[in-house]
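Exercise: predict the structure of this protein bound to zinc ion.
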Amino acid sequence: MASSPSYPKLVDRPKGQQIHHLYLDRIKQFISGGQYAQHNLPGKLYEGRASGGESVKLSVYSPPNLERPNFKEATSHDFKPTKVGEVFGPSWSTHWFRIQLRVPSDLKDKEHLEFHWDANNEGLIWTEDGVPVHGLTGGGERVEYILPKEWYDGEEHVFYIEMACNKMFGNAPGGDSIQPPNPNLYYRLGTADIVAVNLEARALHIDFWMIGDGAREFPGNSWESHEALQVCLAIMDAFIAGNGSKESIVEGRKIARKYLGDHVDSAKVYDSEKEPLVYGIGHCHIDTCWLWPWAETKRKVVRSWTNQCDLLDRYPELRFCASSAQQWKWLEQLYPAAFDRVKAKVKEGTFQPVGGSWVEHDTNMPSGESLVRQFLYGQRYFESRFGQRCRTFWLPDTFGYSSQLPQICRLAGMSRFFTQKLSWNNINNFPHTTFNWVSLDGTQVLCHMTPAETYTASAHFGDVKRSITQHKSMDQDNTSLLVFGKGDGGGGPTWEHIEKLRRLRGISDTVGLLPRVKMGNSVEDFFDQLQKKAENGLDFVTWYGELYFELHRGTYTTQANNKRNNRRSEVILHDVEYLATLASLKSAWKDSKFAETKYKYPKKEIDEMWEATLLCQFHDCLPGSSIEMCYDDSDELYAKLFKTGERLLTEALQELGFDKNFSIKNKSVPLNTLSWSRCELVKMPPFPNGPVYCVSGGGRNNPSLLPLSVPNPVLGASIEEVRKGVYKLANRHFEVEVSDGVITSLYDIQARREVIPKGKKAGQLVIFDDKPLYWQAWDVEVYHLDSRTELPVHKVSVVEGGPARVSLVAETKISDRSWVKTTISLSGACFDDVAYVKLESEVEWRETMKFLKVEFPVNVMNTEASYETQFGIVRRPTHYNTSWDMAKFEVCCHKWADLSENGYGVSILNDSKYGFATVGNLMRLSLLRAPKAPDAHADMGRHHISYAILPHSGPLDHRTVRTAFNFNNPMKVYSHPDKQSVVPLLSAFNIIGDKSLIIDTVKRGEDDEDVSAGDFPARKGRSVILRVYDSLGGRARGKLYWGKLQISKAYKCNVLEDDEDEVDIVEDGMAIKVDLRAFEVATFRLQL
Ligand SMILES: [Zn+2]
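Solution:
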């Protein structure tokens, strides 16, 4: 019988307690670089290496002029020998390498061979026959390509690498990636080796790293932390005892299992029954343009997504999601073989489309209709290619969230929303992780913001830990999404990320304390679970209205030209669709004088125009945070768009019988593409002895022009210099005093009310020093307000003396290089009870880090101001009571902002601006910024900006809403030989009832048989789509008319044009009833 070990009576020798922090530091040695690296695990990771010579023969073709030729074109050229150590450039150039690879005999029997390539830039591996198979990101980010086993045969094998001379974040000159790119960077090819990998050593590396993180990141007073340290020390001891032998590495892995469990070498680790909390999903956030142009994004997509196809083959638990239909379409068009590979994975369910939008767009500035089209084009793309729509809107990285997104999402088939960016707020901490987000109209979506607070997690121990420690909704639910993978050309998840997550799940199940990660689910699965909880009675917290982002407020203003083009493209698309609808159905009106012709609704061109508009709304393009190259690209797209748009307008108008060129022989028609009648001053086409201006009149049933040549007490405006430097401009509505070029008095005659506070100046230009903490193009920081400086006018001159219009020009010098000429005008056309003072500024802008704004102090008191947003109004404070109020020191508006009190108010209209502030009774429109990064020349040059002061008796109402539409869509004059033939068409679509109801869009049905682009089965017959909304925030009722257009059926549908409810046709077949909630957006489909 063995005697049990006895507890000795006498101590053998002294034994000390571990000095904790020393041992904690010591374990870093085992896997890191530095002086001991070769004597620790890093020295064992590779068993052999071959470079140059017969093993790796390199030759190169360098296309000229920064061209990016395709495979066929590139490989048709001669390749010249090259080698490791050679330098390639400049920035943005492309170099095609042919690699002739022969595995040397000493590596032939190794277990695992990789080809390592690192030139500190991006690359794409192509097979010899032209299939792109794998992306590479230099600087150690992703440099390995696993060699096929067939290549271990000692024979020569050939493949190609397409090298792009840019890094993940472009070509920034130094360590600061948002500085403008250096056009002359060169890249040294540092590595082109065949490498034999010791897989056990590599695995032990990950084991040790994760256990070491447990020692470092679990609470210092936890047993789990101390245990992790002891396991790491034991692994090191075994390695030292075995002198780093293969056996000692195997022994180390055995020891690691104490902490990781037995299953971390496969996806089996996820099979335990225990309830997971964190749902891992692979992702690669590829900015559609940013610090590189679109052309590079197209390559980043194929590089990243081919990597993922490879990883999905090797790791069955991985799920990868990709958003942005545009990126999918680029892959489909440019890399069909890669697209087929992706498509097969989509079918398997491992590669998952997500998001339902065309691009990950900005949501502050696009119009309501643009947001609708982001989803219409996105969802239709995904459905046409993969037979499925997305149910979750995916927008991790954008700079604020419109209050109408929940409604539009639901109308586009998405009831859930994923995002993250609000964690960047630099004043207040947003309080929820999972919540119901509620639109202006009361519609909700289930929103989740990942508590790991990143959409490019490296699947670190800390990311998983933070999924619980930063979870803000744990009183209701403790689950979260962990979105991991390198973004922007980093190529998405790496094998390392996936291996780490296996260990982390092992730790959760073996020692606990860490939230359990689950893989193998989709984003949709994750939200399905949340939605099920909501359906089963979990009453998630609500957040009403805008998710205002407390950072990046400069993005409402930066890159003014691009923003103006966005507004203009939205206007022209509205007109093209409206007029093309009339033209394509012109014979379908009862008693129509038009015969059927060959004219076809120009669906293809309209799609191209929309796709261009939607692309430019990408969240670094429209906000102005991209490099200069991106704006060269978008300028080109917009120029093409406007050219196409003008052509389509001309074609549609000709189809409706209008003269191609204005002719005084025929009747003049002021063309009104909006659905209410307009009486306003219209600029005439030039013709000999003709008037410069006329007034539109006659309503929608007899649109005509009235001359404005005689002074008339009802019509006409006047101007006189009442004192030196003081001008009085007057019309039926206002008396305006302009002193020294600014408005010192604006007297509303009917309201008998002075609009400008005594001693204050409206139209005053002010300039601010504008140096935010870091993100120049993005941010304007609150302290810029302290540097306000008034810009004095130095010259005033009268330009137009009336009676049609009076105007004067005020000239302001900003600096030696910059100036502003502002035309202040009053119109003589005043039939309606709406009038405004118009200001048009021409600006030559050459400043550095300055912010130009224009001020309007008004005699109105309210603690809230109103701003137009998509399909509605958002109200924000005019004071700085709390930090939440103060954070909104600069906000986004669309065509107008308004400050009203009981009985009276003032609206400020604009034609191209988005930044605004109302502080007390001071309204301030933001005009131009001058950031120098990432575009060194942002906004330099000439600008044309129109804005207006619209005072009104009574509350904010349809007058502001409609006048702002008019202001952005000035009427043009055409001539027609038989006006009465076209009037029934032009006046057909309108609403009688509450004036808050707006017909925003008139278009043809996407899938009408004479319209369809063929992506979906055609829908029999012809139809008209009308988008209508309540613009003021109250129940709105009326009747929607279509004149004598012969309609057989009418449906209320969603924005994807799925019929939902049939609507009764009333008024002898000429109308339907409309009854909307406050701020509801409704889509009607009228079937002919
Ligand atoms: Zn982004």
